[in-house]
Structures
1.
Amino acid sequence: MKERVYTLAQQELPRRWYNVLADLDRPLDPPLDPRSRKPMPPEALVALFPKACVEQEVATDRFIDIPEEVLEVYRLWRPTPLLRAANLERALGTPAHIYYKYEGVSPTGSHKTNTAVAQAYYNKLEGTKRLTTETGAGQWGSALAFACQAFGLGLTVFMVKISYHQKPYRKAMIELYGGEIVPSPSERTQAGRDVLAQNPDSPGSLGIAISEAIEEALSTGAKYSLGSVLNHVLLHQTVIGQEALAQMELAGEYPDAVVGCVGGGSNFGGLMLPFLYDAKGRGRAIEFIAAEPTACPTITQGEVRYDYGDTGEMTPLLKMHTLGHDFVPPPIHAGGLRYHGMAPIITRLVEEGIVRPVALDQVDVFRDAVLFARTEGIIPAPETAHAVHAALELAREAARSDRPRVILIGFSGHGHFDMSAYQAYLAGELVRTSPGN
Ligand SMILES: Cc1ncc(COP(=O)(O)O)c(C=O)c1O
């Protein structure tokens, strides 16, 4: 009998995060101060983030211990399972072996809890009382609300307005964990009022919501928390890849392709970075594929340059792929992929030819998400569905060329709160977003 699920025991939970900064050929370009545009000393970031996270932003140790208090919360759902998509393979008639690392088993349904718990813990340790943040799809907001509840912190979440209306149950979930939620752009901040003055019907964007969350933090003595992009966020997500390495070993296989979706790059980075390190050590080659929407083609169409992380120009400037910090993507259902920028770590790996980006149309993405749900039973989040579609294209190509492959998908979350998106797809109401379509 072929195994379907590869699980690790609780004591096999990784005790350290993997820090890729130790292994880059040259250091990342430093962040620039938003006003002077001069390199910014890391200490300047402590106005927004806890000291421990600021240190991790520039740490050069290859491994960083995970605090016991964080491990204790991780044990509620980690290690997460690795599954073999055997039904899907059969449906495709592909010789490829398809595996997926399932992060949807976390309390809030996605990988976002991995960094939320760490960030809430460090804030608690350093005396923070309340956090502010933004959320697109609501996955990050609910993950941070869960983590703040776990460590007794207050939380205000600015949720991108279009998602706020598309996903009312995410709002309920954030409130259930004790968080406050504000649709963005809002009248509550100057950044929000400025946007509304220009466009009262703005659907919002992550860039606008970040400005609002930062303004709120700086003006109320709270701290700010970001769910992607930054080095320390990718660091916290590396529990995913380390577990998956051990689980692929249990399966007796090694992936030749690792595929993930990219909004700001955290789940993809968390999965692929430990594999990059491991493959180098073994002298093996892996194709790393980053899947993004054609509606927000940050890597495939953006430029690599210094840019702000937010619309209101309050964040430090990062050297990254960007569509411009005032870019407002069309309101697609994969809200978590509607971000103009990219993690500088992922940008660097794209520049080095290690990561290959692909841009996908939401109609094709949902078609394969439905196929996945009908064969494997698990309903992918619309963001995750981008990784699924990119992987299935590889598996189809493997079928055409009769080439055996081992494909690993970063399955970042389930889509239980995304039924309106699936309803729209099934009713034929989703529009193509690719240029020329
Ligand atoms: C389920 C899911 N996957 C992926 C993403 C994209 O974020 P990142 O690229 O940081 O993993 C999000 C963001 O909200 C998400 O909710």
Note: DSSP finds 16 helices and 15 strands in the chain.
2.
Amino acid sequence: MRAIVLEKFGGLDSLVYRDVPEPEPELGHAVIEVKGFGKSCPGGEFPVGAKVAALMGGLGRTINGSYAEYTRAPVSNVASIDADLPWAELAAIPETFATAWTCLFRNLDLAKGQVLVIRGATSSFGQAALKLAVNAGARVIATTRSRERFALLEKLGAARCEIERRDLSKHLPEAKQVDAVLDLVGNSVVLDTLAMLRRGGRSCLAGWLGGLDPIPDFNPLLQMPSGVYLTFFGSFVFGTPGFPLSDVPLREIAADAAAGRLDVKPARVFRFDEIREAHRVMEANEAVGKMVVVRD
Ligand SMILES: NC(=O)c1ccc[n+]([C@@H]2O[C@H](COP(=O)([O-])OP(=O)(O)OC[C@H]3O[C@@H](n4cnc5c(N)ncnc54)[C@H](OP(=O)(O)O)[C@@H]3O)[C@@H](O)[C@H]2O)c1
């Protein structure tokens, strides 16, 4: 089969197409035709030809991922999805929407009518969360560093937009009244995020758009507000004990998309043979939303 391989550290020219052996069936795993039909699953968890979505479980990290015609994923990280959607839209759902849903409805326990701040809302993750939260009846305040992107976020249902800044809590009229924050900017604003929550309010730290530097001189006694919750979610736990994929309503999300109740359309779609251009766009921050590669 054809696969896209990162042959060495470096720039876009390190991404090359190679012929590699197809993954063999293995117990506890499903062999999947990427953006096609499930091929084989010796344990019988999925019938041959089932339409499935796979996420995490080491894909693309500790095991080969979806940059190929076929992949093999642990069955704990595979879910069947039968919605009638184009492959490009189906491919946009698993990682982004499963993670956004879990952050909103597990970590943040978001409820109708609550005020939610999404920091880093123009990111692909942020946009998915914004759509899910608006559909759930939350009032969303969305942040971006650029005023020109307010219109995009308002179109997706944001009640208001704010310019992302390190001291946002000092400029937010709703400070100390916010029910929940989905913080995708991360370590550089963790404490500022906590400062905008009401008593009992929750923050979910799930992105690091502002960088991975640790919080300098973190001293909870001096810096943390009382009575607020700081939680964390990393999608790498999907499929592990305590975080079964069945917890996430992926089928419902896909059904909502197919019925027109939820827009999962990626911002940019690339062909399999356009991988270098896809990575260039990603690294240049040009996509403003989810990017998907489909096989013809
Ligand atoms: N916890 C998890 O399981 C999980 C899963 C997936 C992704 N993530 C994380 O979530 C974040 C978003 O991922 P993504 O793939 O959706 O990103 P993405 O689509 O590539 O996000 C790009 C957007 O991030 C914003 N941004 C870039 N640098 C920023 C900065 N210094 N401060 C604030 N905003 C900045 C920009 O928005 P503006 O220019 O409009 O400000 C840009 O449009 C990443 O940190 C990623 O690692 C976490």
Note: The longest strand covers residues 197-205.
